[in-house]
Amino acid sequence: MDSKAKVVGAIDAESIVAFESKYNNDAKSKLAEDILARANLKDVAINRKVAIESIHTYSHTVPEVKPSVNQRSSGRCWIFAALNVIREQLVRDLKMESFELSQSYVFFWDKFEKAGWFLEQIIQTLDEKVEDRLISYLLKSPVNDGGQYDMFINIVNKYGLVPKDVYPDSTSAKLSRPMNWIITCKLREFAKDLRKCHKQGNTIKQLRKLKNEQLSIIYRILCINLGQPPKKFDFVYKDKDKKFHRIRDLSPKHFVKDHVTFDVNSQVSLINDPRNPYYKLYTVDRLGNVVGGRGVRYLNLPIEELKKYAIKTIQNKQPVWFGCDVGKFFHRDDGVMDLEYFSYDKMFGIQFSSFSKADRLRYGESLMTHAMVFTGVELDHQQKPLSWRVQNSWGEKGGDKGYLRMSDKWFDEYNYQISVDKSILSEDTLKVLDLPPVKLPPWDPMGSLAVCSGWSQTAGTKPSASIYSNL
Fold first, then answer.
1. Residue of 77, 154, 300, 331 marked catalytic
2. Is 77 annotated as catalytic?
3. Which of 200, 228, 306, 365 has the most Cβ atoms closer than 10 angstroms to its Cβ?
């Protein structure tokens, strides 16, 4: 065979020479190369006009509670966001100046329940080949930090909540990867043991007994890393008038029953997934945490409907939990999410306009990566949204003391989900909730927030997923 013969589909030397010549004759590209040799891309590509106009001022806001929260190097964003919504109501009801619920308490029980959920999935798929896509998917990430709002509801219903003073963050809560590796390693080993015992003829009853022994080990690992969760505690606080309060001997579930007026069970998740028909109910196969708990369900609506219900909630002085693809067109230090904030078109001579929201989902370019809270919106004279105020969970650094600004066009393209009280939905929309959900495959991007590791406030990137762009 002639070594110089062209291979169909290979990049040939002549093409490279042509690329080099074209690039070397492009003065603008050569200048950009020199600039980026000593500068950060996101800083030099900023559109100055848009940056100047990106003001953190809004026509409608909800009361904001201190302190600013910080998930540190963990993927607990969905928990932080959900608890931020609840604490706003709690602070208002009890007339407190500041307060924080324990994110680690929810984190502990979610991890524990996810371990049980994973082992149950293994028992349900014992006759599948370990090389099959489903088993490979289940084994890939048994207990990631992420989650969905319905999964949060499951934990609150089964285990309640506690103040952060009662169950504060341990180091493993703030830096979860080492703990996750140990748990993941053991769960994969447990999956192997369950499948081996099945092949040896053990009954399902015997396998579930083994599963319970395995969960005892997971419980011990979690207690060592996060601390043993409290069963009883005293709720101690001072109100705005400096009056001291102590409510003695509360259980976590009684704390919710007696003091949390925000009803998590009335919340419904609305999504915007243009790949699939609107006004239908969806779920993701094998996505969940509590066996026998509430299933993950999404009501798919046009993006304008999500905005309408988010605005209505904010005007009712309630914050809004939401899930988005935070890394796209996002300047972290400035705290701005805006499609026009970076002049990538001028710097690289490229356009992003040919990629629709549906196509980005289909081709792996976008998916839900982070959960936060809307606390404000700027409406124009026609009551149309221009920008959104966002409460993040990365501390006070960046943006307006940790609060971000999202342009409405960014909302269109990279916001995927909100959670609102079902009482504000129209009658026709409410009827959809009674229909059986369409089941999406386990690896569908609508389940990504619960499966991925979560954005770390320290790194600002997802630790183990190269597909998560940071443009």
1. 77
2. yes
3. 306
- pLDDT tens digit sequence for 204-253: 999 999 999 999 999 999 999 999 999 999 999 999 999 999 999 999 99
One of 70, 154, 272, 392 is an active-site residue; which one?
Answer: 392
Cα separation, 10 vs 455, whole angstroms: 37
pLDDT in tens, 386-440: 999 999 999 999 999 999 999 999 999 999 999 999 999 999 999 999 999 999 9
Query: Is 197 a known active-site residue?
Result: no
* Distance set, CA 89 to CA 82, 93, 151, 300, 308 (Å): 12, 6, 21, 27, 22
Strands 403-407 and 336-337: parallel
Helix (H), strand (E), coil (C) string for the chain: CCCCCCCCCCCCHHHHHHHHHHHHCCHHHHHHHHHHCCCCHHHHCECHHHHHHCCCCCCEECCCCECCCECCECCCHHHHHHHHHHHHHHHHHHCCCECCECHHHHHHHHHHHHHHHHHHHHHHCCCCCCCCHHHHHHHHCCCCCCCCHHHHHHHHHHHCCCECCCCCCCHHHHECHHHHHHHHHHHHHHHHHHHHHHHCCCCHHHHHHHHHHHHHHHHHHHHHHHCCCCCCEEEEEECCCCCEEEEEEECHHHHHHHHCCCCHHHEEEEECCCCCCCCEEEEECCCCCCCCCCCCCEEECCHHHHHHHHHHHHHCCCCEEEEECCCCCEECCCCEECCCCECHHHHHCCCCCCCCHHHHHHCCCCCCCEEEEEEEEEECCCCCEEEEEEECCECCCCCECCEEEEEHHHHHHHEEEEEEEHHHCCHHHHHHCCCCCEEECCCCHHHHHHHCCCCCCCCCCCCCCCCCCCC
C-alpha span between 330 and 339 (Å, rounded): 8
pTM: 0.95
- 452 part of the active site: no
Could you say which of 154, 331, 370, 452 is catalytic? 370
- Cβ atoms 381, 62 nearer than 8 A: no
* Residue from 78, 102, 73 nearest 90 by CA: 102
> What φ, ψ does residue 70 adopt, rounded to 5°?
-145, 115
